[in-house]
């Protein structure tokens, strides 16, 4: 335990601090062109040459949404086919060792600790001068993943890109077996650019000459960029249609991860694995030089082909687990709906899943059910884009907190030095005020519609204007009791996840410190069951899972 903690504390010193990151953002990620050349040097200092990296049999996946799920499906499919899998992913939910999975299981604390000091020791020894920098946090973990996969002698290494693709640390890989691009959208815009085509340019940066590439269905602007870059780079690019619900025998193709988008991710994964297994079998059957027509193995997933899915593949899809994405954890008196959605499209998908899934659960419960939102958003994401669709979900209360576990401390795995506590708390307050403003706006629209048929006596005009003008302009938060907000939704902000959960669950969650919780409004009391949607940030979801335990 202690050794692992010591290792993670040391690892955290490699996180860029908030000031440094601000500088990089202002430069618009200009220094990032050096990322890959630097990565090659870091790997060499650890004793890993590019030839060693070439020996790993790699599936490389970029994308805005669903790249982690696509990789998780790939891992599960190939493991069910009997291969030894390595999977490098980010970010982690609870413990950093989750980023390195062998055969689907995070490496043990002991292994993590040994590999960590191994890699760190070699980097420190080769630091001849102050000019030789240490890698930043993600770059270090990427080098460590290569070290782990080589030592563990995996059959396949599934590498999920961190941010972008072109300048991502994982892009030192020069000969993957196959590349995939999952669904694209706007995220990390301060680094990758403000438009979908700029973002697509970065994501296509993982394409390599002659290496087959596949993409999920994309918006036209994104697809054009991917196709142009594939031509420039010289790689065949194929669009993969979504996975049908049934195979040609009429049997269900069920997925282990919920949510409608997952059928796109699963289809992409099936295709990537098909190319990988074909290439593997070809290597084994003919060790001589490969023939020229290397791209004939492109099997395109369409309705007629689905009958060819082997049992191991359908089992891999069905048994795939990927926590924190459309995940439900059910406890006595409270259910958690967890989804780390942090782009508009993924929030819309999350809402659709939550509405369906929570309604199904409510049918099974005889008493009153209340719904509560627990939200945070971080980085350069525009909170209003994420919050607006959530306002329409009819929550009984909305709760806001930073990605901090306890107001006194964080676990080492959840430590984030890239933002200051003060900036996190300011963001929480801004998110809450925004939610209130949008909720009031929605209420006013509804009242307008009603007012044509009846006069409104519930709220005095003076109170209305008071609320509209000062409290929302000046961020004055003392207006909570004004009937407009009372009518629309109860909002509350907290300094940490633990106190937010204690309040939201009304003390029903045994794993949060039973601190005395702030009085819960009568409107929320005496519910038979509480449904809590946790979304907006994958780190928030990870913090919640860390506290309540995953099922």
Automatic annotation (TrEMBL):
GO terms for cellular component: cytosol; mitochondrial inner membrane; mitochondrial matrix. Pathway: Cofactor biosynthesis; tetrahydrofolylpolyglutamate biosynthesis. PROSITE patterns: FOLYLPOLYGLU_SYNT_1, FOLYLPOLYGLU_SYNT_2. A monovalent cation. Keywords: ATP-binding, Cytoplasm, Ligase, Magnesium, Membrane, Metal-binding, Mitochondrion, Mitochondrion inner membrane, Nucleotide-binding, One-carbon metabolism. Mg(2+) binds at residues 90, 160, 188. It catalyses: (6S)-5,6,7,8-tetrahydrofolyl-(gamma-L-Glu)(n) + L-glutamate + ATP = (6S)-5,6,7,8-tetrahydrofolyl-(gamma-L-Glu)(n+1) + ADP + phosphate + H(+). One of its GO terms (biological process) is one-carbon metabolic process. GO terms for molecular function: ATP binding; metal ion binding; tetrahydrofolylpolyglutamate synthase activity. It comes from the Eukaryota. Signal peptide: none annotated. Residues 446-474 are annotated as: Disordered. ATP binds at residues 325, 339. It is an enzyme of class 6 (ligase). NCBIfam families: folC. PANTHER family: FOLYLPOLYGLUTAMATE SYNTHASE, MITOCHONDRIAL (PTHR11136:SF5), FOLYLPOLYGLUTAMATE SYNTHASE-RELATED (PTHR11136). Catalyzes conversion of folates to polyglutamate derivatives allowing concentration of folate compounds in the cell and the intracellular retention of these cofactors, which are important substrates for most of the folate-dependent enzymes that are involved in one-carbon transfer reactions involved in purine, pyrimidine and amino acid synthesis. Belongs to the folylpolyglutamate synthase family. This is Folylpolyglutamate synthase.
């Amino acid at each position: 335990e202690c050794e692992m903690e010591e290792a993670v504390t040391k690892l955290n010193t490699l996180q860029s601090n908030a000031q440094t990151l601000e500088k990089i953002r202002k430069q618009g990620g200009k220094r990032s062109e050096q990322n890959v050349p630097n990565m090659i040097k870091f790997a060499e200092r650890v004793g890993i040459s590019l030839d060693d990296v070439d020996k790993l049999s790699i599936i490389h996946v970029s994308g805005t949404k669903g790249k982690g799920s696509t990789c998780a499906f790939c891992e599960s499919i190939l493991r069910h086919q009997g291969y030894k899998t390595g999977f490098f992913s980010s970010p982690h939910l609870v413990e950093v060792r989750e980023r390195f999975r062998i055969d689907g299981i995070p490496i043990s604390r002991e292994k993590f600790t040994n590999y960590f000091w191994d890699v760190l020791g070699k980097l420190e020894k080769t630091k001849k001068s102050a000019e030789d920098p240490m890698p930043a946090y993600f770059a270090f973990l990427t080098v460590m993943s290569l070290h782990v996969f080589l030592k563990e002698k995996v059959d396949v290494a599934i590498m999920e890109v961190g941010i972008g693709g072109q300048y991502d640390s994982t892009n030192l890989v020069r000969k993957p077996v196959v590349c995939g691009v999952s669904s694209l959208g706007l995220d990390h815009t301060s680094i990758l650019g403000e438009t979908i085509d700029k973002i697509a340019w970065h994501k296509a940066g993982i394409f390599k000459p002659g290496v087959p590439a596949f993409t999920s269905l994309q918006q036209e602007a994104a697809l054009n960029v991917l196709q142009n870059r594939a031509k420039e780079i010289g790689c065949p690019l194929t669009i993969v249609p979504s996975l049908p619900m049934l195979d040609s025998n009429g049997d269900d193709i069920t997925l282990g991860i919920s949510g409608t988008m997952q059928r796109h991710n699963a289809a992409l994964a099936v295709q990537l694995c098909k190319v990988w297994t074909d290439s593997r079998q070809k290597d084994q059957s003919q060790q001589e030089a490969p023939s020229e027509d290397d791209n004939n193995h492109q099997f395109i997933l369409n309705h007629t082909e689905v009958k060819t899915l082997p049992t191991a593949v359908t089992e891999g899809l069905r048994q795939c687990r990927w926590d924190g994405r459309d995940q439900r954890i059910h406890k006595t008196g409270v259910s958690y709906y967890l989804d780390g959605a942090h782009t508009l499209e993924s929030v819309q998908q999350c809402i659709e899943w939550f509405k369906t899934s929570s309604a199904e659960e409510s049918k099974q419960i005889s008493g009153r059910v209340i719904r509560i939102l627990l939200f945070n958003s971080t980085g350069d994401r525009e909170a209003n884009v994420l919050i607006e669709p959530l306002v329409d979900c009819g929550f009984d209360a909305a709760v806001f907190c930073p990605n901090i576990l306890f107001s006194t401390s964080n676990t080492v795995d959840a430590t984030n030095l890239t933002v200051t506590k003060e900036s996190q708390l300011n963001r929480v307050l801004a998110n809450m005020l925004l939610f209130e403003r949008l909720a009031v706006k929605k209420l006013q629209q509804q009242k307008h519609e009603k007012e044509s048929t009846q006069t409104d006596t519930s709220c005095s005009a003076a109170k209305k204007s008071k609320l509209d003008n000062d409290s929302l302009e000046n961020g004055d938060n003392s207006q909570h009791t004004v009937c407009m907000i009372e009518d629309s939704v109860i909002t509350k902000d907290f300094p940490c996840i633990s106190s937010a959960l204690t309040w939201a669950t009304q003390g029903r969650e045994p794993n949060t410190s039973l601190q005395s919780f702030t009085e819960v409004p009568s409107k929320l009391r005496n519910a038979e069951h509480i449904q809590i949607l946790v979304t907006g940030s994958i780190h928030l979801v990870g913090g919640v899972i860390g506290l309540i335990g995953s099922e």
